[in-house]
Design goal:
There is one protein chain. The chain has helices at about 15-25, 60-65, 90-95, 120-125, 135-165, and strands at about 5, 40, 45-50, 70-75, 80, 100-105, 110, 130-135. The termini are far apart. With about 160 residues, it is an alpha+beta fold. The protein has 5 helices and 8 strands; from the N terminus they run βαββαββαββαβα. The strands form 4 sheets. Strands 1-8 form a two-stranded antiparallel ribbon. Helix content is about 35%, strand content about 20%. It has one domain (about 5-135): Alpha-Beta Plaits (2-Layer Sandwich).
Length: about 160
């Protein structure tokens, strides 16, 4: 069964360790700009959201690639780039609705999350489990459960406010 990254932004503390681990794992350098996962920060709100490739089933990056360098590995459930074919045109960067594709000026090629060949290092080092690697079917269930909990809390808060009026 295919697995997927599950990101629970409500758990993320903004430590950015996932970015550093990713960059070191892939490029041997402690540089967050080389990471395949990026933590978007809204400091004033205390909100941190790790963003990574969603490994889309009908991946826009794959569809726009003029040389067919992007394909799907069904066994690992990932979308990956064949660097022997990629011409570095960056069409995939513009097509990705999540901003998950990046470009290395040094190597003159795009890069994205490859799920570390089935052992994502960002998951191994996330102490608060804001990033997890679970069966793809479970992702939907967990998201529904989290949404239901937020609605329940909001409903209780609304009822408490009404009672005060």
């Amino acid at each position: 069964m295919a697995k997927a990254l599950y990101i629970d932004y409500q758990k993320c503390t903004g430590c950015r360790l996932c970015e550093l681990v990713c960059a070191v794992s892939h490029d041997g350098i402690s540089n967050p700009a080389r990471s395949r996962i990026r933590v978007m920060k809204w400091e004033a709100e205390g909100l941190y959201i790790p963003m990574s490739c969603q490994q889309c089933e009908d991946a826009p990056c794959k569809l726009v690639c003029p040389v067919k360098a992007i394909s799907r590995d069904e066994e690992l459930g990932r979308v990956f780039v064949d660097y022997d074919v990629c011409i570095g045109c960056r069409a995939c960067i513009g097509a990705c609705p999540f901003g998950a594709m990046s470009f290395s000026i040094k190597e003159k090629q795009v890069f994205k999350c490859d799920l570390c060949d089935g052992d994502p290092q960002c998951v191994r080092f996330c102490e608060v489990k804001a990033v997890d690697f679970i069966d793809a079917d479970e992702v939907s269930i967990l998201k529904k459960r989290n949404a239901a909990e937020r609605v329940s809390v909001a409903g209780k808060e609304g009822a408490a406010l009404e009672a005060q009026l």
